[in-house]
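Aim 2 progress update. The chain analyzed this quarter is reproduced below.
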Amino acid sequence: SICLRTTDNSAASFDKSFTISVTNAAEATAKNGGFETYTGTSNIPTSWKASANFGTTDGKNTIHKFGKFSVKITGAGTLKKTLTQTLTGLTGSSDDAVTFSFWVKGTSVPSTGKCMGQVLLYNGTTLVKTQTLACPTGTYVFKKKTITFNAPSAYNKAVIRFTYQKSGGTVWFDVASLAR
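Predicted structure tokens:
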């Protein structure tokens, strides 16, 4: 509710209250997508799960696009490193417009191997959609990666996953967002 005070031409003032309702607003669903919250001394952001291959220098890092922290992942031969968040209890419909985005920075990222952000939509245990955004190669400042797509059917779970499987190089992920 908002109250405005206005004055008419005769210098009389009066208050007018009214309510503004917002409908169909985008619903942000990623939790701790800015990688700003950590528990204790953990290098893994709250609400995210790292694969067993995460090294001691992977995870929380002060090189960031926004806020204070990002997640850093360094290549280690053929080891596949993932950072994943599973969102349950969603009520998504067929044809929902879904936008997935994140920022990524890289240093000496090789051209062979995998570096990507993904969103996977499920209806129960059935995978209904996978969208993948590849990271650039080489050395680069933070770049925003974004994709908008329509859900092909109803969904009630989303998985956000970052994968780094390269022989070397380093990437930093920041500000992951999944909105509909």
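The radius of gyration is 21 Å. Residues 18-26 have pLDDT under 50 and may be disordered. These observations will guide the mutagenesis experiments scheduled for the next reporting period.
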